Amino acid sequence: MAENQDKAAEPIIIKKYANRRLYNTAKSSYVTLDHLAQMVRDGEDFVVNDAKSGQDITRSVLAQIIFDEEAKGHTMLPANFLRQLIRLYGDTLQGFVPGYLEASMDTFARNQDQMRSHVQKAFEANPALANFEALARSNMEWFENAMRMFAPFANNIGAQQGESGETPKDGETKKDVELDELKQQLAEMQSQLAKIVKDK
Q1: 43 close to 37: Cβ distance less than 8 angstroms
Q2: How far apart (Å, rounded) are the C-alpha atoms in residues 77 and 113?
């Protein structure tokens, strides 16, 4: 019985071939990205492996699904958010981003029932549209603020270097002052991350 439960909990293996075709090993059939998107919506867990090398390419396939959805006009990712995300690649804070985004989406997921309730009310009575719009706007502002916190260099470093007017103390160089400021920002971000994880 325990073995059956373990098998049920294992993710479905999807193989991607050189011709870009996707093969669902559980159903012994070829599938499309639309099928995989539906599996995600249905809560079915799967892993995509390169058929030749066996390498796990799940993230790139999920990213392709998002790209296709955006191309169809189902836009959810604001251009400003994407720019901030791109800026973080190669940044010293890159390692913090996945955990923070995951925590952010978990928080958003916990609010989904409330959002669905607003949507239902919106169809029942027009005044509820205002409530839903306010909630959606609030969630977007929260999400963009979260990303802004992870891009302090893009928003703040120019101001710190050019406008702060802070002069180095005796024995300190300008780089020492900048390093201290960066350390302080990093400490603040770690504190905020710890608070988010604690609140989960």
Answers
A1: no
A2: 21
142, 78 Cβ separation under 8 angstroms: no
Residues with Cβ within 8 Å of 176's Cβ and at least 6 positions away in sequence, in order, are: 168
pLDDT tens string, the chain, 200 residues long: the values are 445 454 557 899 999 998 889 999 999 999 999 999 999 999 899 999 999 999 999 999 999 999 998 888 888 888 888 898 888 888 888 888 888 888 888 888 778 777 777 767 666 655 555 565 666 666 666 666 666 665 554 444 444 444 444 555 555 666 666 667 776 777 676 676 666 656 55
Domain boundaries, the chain: 1-76, 77-200
C-beta separation of 91 from 153 below 8 A: yes
CA distance 197 to 173: 37
Give the torsion sign (CA, 90, 40, 113, 119).
Answer: positive
